[in-house]
Amino acid sequence: MSTSYRIDGLQYANWSPKIFEEMAQGGVHAVHVTIAYHETFREMVLQVEAWNRWFERFPDRIMMGRTAADIDTAKATGRTAIFFGFQNPSPIEDDIGLIEICYTLGARFMQLSYNNQSFLATGCYESEDPGITRFGKQAIAEMNRVGLVIDMSHSAERSTLEAIDISSRPIAITHANPHWWHAALRNKSDEVLRALTARGGMLGFSVYPHHLKDGTQCTRESFCAMVAECAERYGAENIGIGTDLCQDQPDSVVEWMRVGRWSKQMDYGEGSADNPGFPPMPQWFRDNRDFDSIEEGLRGVGMSEAEVAGVMGGNWYRFFEQNFVAL
User: Fold this and answer.
1) By residue range, what is the domain housing residue 317?
2) Is residue 274 predicted with pLDDT exceeding 70?
3) Helices 157-166 and 190-198 meet at what angle, rounded to 10?
């Protein structure tokens, strides 16, 4: 038995007709896709153009997503709704007016920082975290106004806590796991997750191996037991899936993700000098066809049907419905 919605809170795949077909096979109704890591505004627009061509070429498989209602349309017509997001605020450059323009172009999530310090907030790889900047505070207010969701997936502790507090609307951590389960630098502390969910924010669980306990060898039972524990700690209505699936990407893309233009040297970040590329996915989740596996695993650790339905997409649907609209 399948749940009502299947929504993935984050993917950065090397998009292709094959992947669009796999999303259909996996019954995925909506995906938040990354269209910017370090791109300028103009470079981000080129990504929107590329997606417009995908929508034109494969109208039977994918469609543009702007509101939660678009997910219902996608579901009814056997398609996947694509929602745009940025993993870095670089597309707004130093211009607060571009926030509304980005929203108009279809952006629905924006991280306030990637791994480094940005104009808005501090990334999780910086040694010092001075918190949300002056620009960041005004950017948060503008994002709240237009309906662009604040994402702190790669941000440092103080900046994340301040963003939760400053924002008048719930924020998201679209792709991370709890630090108490696996001590990756990118995973989030119990304090952050309690603050996030207390304000109605959403956590999307990542299956990217660097975020998993035991990495590629992480078992489905371990992952799903962690999800169930989070439901008990933070509320089953505040959690979902954010796979961080980077399917079919060449290892060269890792360099762009981690380095952009800021360094002459490779920043290995969550990887290592011995394995600088993408790690193999766990055998129980290789691509979009394996959402059944997660759903079965959640039932296997004793989560109720209502809880499973929420995690697989219902909670994201409600969050989209409430937060993709202007105040």
Assistant:
1) 7-323
2) no
3) 10
